[in-house]
């Protein structure tokens, strides 16, 4: 993966088109030469599947409204592409599950789907069930009736529409192999292992990020590497576990960063952020926003055990963080988070990052500057790229909580947002991050006083330094330049990066 800013987007939500329109935006349109690669969020068939396509019915087909595998291949020849490999579950409307529903144990896919009895053949004690970790309230099981009238208790970690795969069964393995090979043929160079932390279940454990899970992730990573595909693991968990996972794969998400940047800007104190930057994995994809919400579990205490290690933020600090997000977003995030929202996720706040900062342009650009100076490869979500606001209409229309942060842009809307000063300044920051040679060197972080933070990169005679004073909301980038050292203020009105 190139050490340049990456874009994360749905194929059709930047301008309403398919793969060819996205290719035009990236190769000869407003984003030409802007990104080192693109993470394509689910583009499989059908596009309108639950949770914006996270559980498509058929992973082997591109939705024809977007194009074909040939179009994916054509884009991959111009741009490094990442695609999603959801290793935990598949839609209950998939051909595989339809065959199982119809034929029961006679189906060749009967053992592809994980049942309660497969993990607990003799039943489970109350303590065993309570130990299972799940990102939703309640137990991860759904009773389903097959066509012959028999009933099965299926493992459904996320929702009853998303049936968990037994990744250690022959058919589960074959299913993942087929998808890897399809990606390889299409020129996909990286995959995101979605929901990987829940992939392996074992009685007597939390069934989340257990040693067998790490073994499974390691084996799948080696398999992908043999095809020339890099692996990014997506899992929200305690920060110490993220550090351990990073040792086994190519890339991990830095899901800690979004909450700690907000905490630094809200409190005016960067101590917690500095602490994380000193210990975090270097093979990280840095994000402030994604197609999901702003994660909380990543900065909190270990939830798998009552006596587990503490978090980077205390529960009181996390509560203050959440309340401030609600306040800055004028209550919009509250409508899509917690008990007021359907499809409840207990580990995140659903809100665009720009709204979480109260639509304050300079705060937003300071946050992005800190992201771009953090070690790792930065990734910007398409909503964040355009400094997008919360879409309550889409949320209320479909009832999907994350839709507040998944707006469908028309070409006219895209053109309008590209004229906004905060967006133009962000594009300049991206160009600076991509072009300056110091970011291939060594990193150090420091602070002076209670409210200052200094992030610096050096490679040979090249250097780039970000000085942030959170008390007065002022950030300055200083950097080496062949024509003499330069400075630029991180502000929507005056920023101008060298190109």
Give the number of domains: 3
- Level of helix content? 25-40%
Rounded to an integer in angstroms, the radius of gyration calculated over CA atoms is 23 Å
Largest sheet: 8 strands, parallel, barrel
CATH homology group of the largest domain: Glycosidases
- Could you name the CATH class of the largest domain? Alpha Beta
Strands, count: 21
Strand content: 15-25%
Structural summary, described in words:
This protein is of the alpha/beta class and 499 residues long. It folds into three domains: 6-87 and 170-440, TIM Barrel; 95-163, Oligo-1,6-glucosidase, domain 2; 442-489. Helices cover 34% and strands 19% of the residues. The chain has 19 helices and 21 strands. The chain has helices at residues 19-27, 50-53, 69-76, 95-103, 116-119, 126-131, 170-185, 211-226, 239-245, 256-267, 271-279, 315-328, 332-335, 353-356, 361-373, 382-385, 392-398, 411-418, 421-435; strands spanning 6-9, 37-40, 44-45, 58-62, 81-86, 89-91, 141-145, 151-155, 162-164, 190-194, 230-233, 251-254, 284-286, 294-295, 348-349, 377-381, 442-446, 452-459, 462-469, 474-479, 486-489. The strands form six sheets. It has an eight-stranded parallel beta barrel. A hairpin with a 6-residue loop joins β20 (474-479) and β21. The chain is globular, with a radius of gyration of 23 Å.
């Amino acid at each position: 993966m190139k050490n340049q800013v990456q874009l994360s987007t749905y194929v059709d939500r930047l301008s309403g088109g398919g793969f060819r329109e996205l290719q035009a935006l990236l190769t000869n349109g407003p984003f030409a030469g802007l990104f080192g690669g693109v993470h394509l969020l689910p583009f499989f068939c059908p596009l309108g599947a639950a949770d914006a396509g996270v559980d498509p019915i058929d992973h082997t087909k591109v939705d024809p409204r977007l194009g074909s595998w040939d179009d994916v291949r054509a884009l991959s020849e111009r741009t490094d592409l990442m695609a999603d490999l959801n290793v935990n579950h598949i839609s209950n409307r998939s051909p595989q599950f339809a065959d199982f529903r119809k034929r029961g144990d006679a189906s060749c896919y009967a053992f592809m789907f994980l049942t309660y009895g497969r993990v607990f053949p003799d039943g489970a004690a109350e303590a065993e069930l309570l130990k299972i970790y799940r990102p939703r309230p309640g137990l991860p099981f759904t009773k389903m009736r097959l066509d012959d009238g028999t009933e099965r208790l299926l493992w459904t970690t996320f929702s009853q529409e998303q049936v968990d795969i037994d990744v250690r069964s022959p058919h589960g393995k074959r299913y993942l192999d087929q998808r890897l090979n399809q990606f390889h043929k299409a020129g996909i160079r990286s995959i995101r292992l979605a929901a990987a932390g829940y992939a392996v279940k074992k009685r007597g454990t939390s069934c989340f990020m257990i040693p067998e899970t790490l073994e499974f992730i390691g084996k799948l990573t080696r398999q992908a590497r043999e095809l020339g595909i890099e692996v990014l693991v997506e899992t929200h968990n305690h920060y110490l576990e993220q550090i351990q996972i990073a040792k086994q794969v190519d890339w991990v998400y830095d899901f800690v960063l979004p909450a700690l940047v907000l905490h630094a800007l809200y409190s005016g104190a960067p101590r917690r952020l500095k602490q994380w930057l000193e210990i975090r994995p270097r093979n990280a994809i840095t994000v402030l926003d994604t197609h999901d919400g702003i994660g909380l579990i990543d900065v909190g205490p270990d939830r798998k055990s009552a006596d587990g290690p503490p978090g980077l933020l205390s529960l009181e600090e996390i509560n203050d963080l959440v309340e401030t997000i609600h306040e800055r977003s004028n209550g919009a995030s509250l409508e899509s988070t917690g008990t007021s929202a359907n499809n409840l996720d207990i580990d995140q706040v659903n809100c665009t990052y720009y709204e979480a900062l109260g639509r304050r342009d300079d705060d937003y650009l300071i946050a992005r500057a800190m992201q771009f100076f953090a070690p790792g490869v930065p990734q910007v979500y398409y909503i964040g790229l355009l400094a997008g606001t919360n879409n309550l209409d889409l949320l209320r229309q479909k009832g999907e909580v994350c839709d507040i942060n998944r707006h469908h842009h028309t070409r006219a809307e895209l053109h309008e947002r590209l004229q906004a000063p905060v967006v133009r300044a962000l594009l300049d920051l991206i160009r600076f991050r991509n072009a300056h040679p110091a970011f291939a060197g060594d990193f150090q972080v420091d602070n002076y006083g209670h409210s200052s933070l200094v992030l610096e990169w050096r490679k040979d005679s090249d250097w780039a330094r970000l000085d942030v004073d959170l008390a007065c909301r002022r950030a300055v980038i200083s950097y080496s330049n062949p024509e003499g050292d330069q400075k630029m203020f991180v502000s929507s009105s005056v920023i101008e990066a060298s190109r």
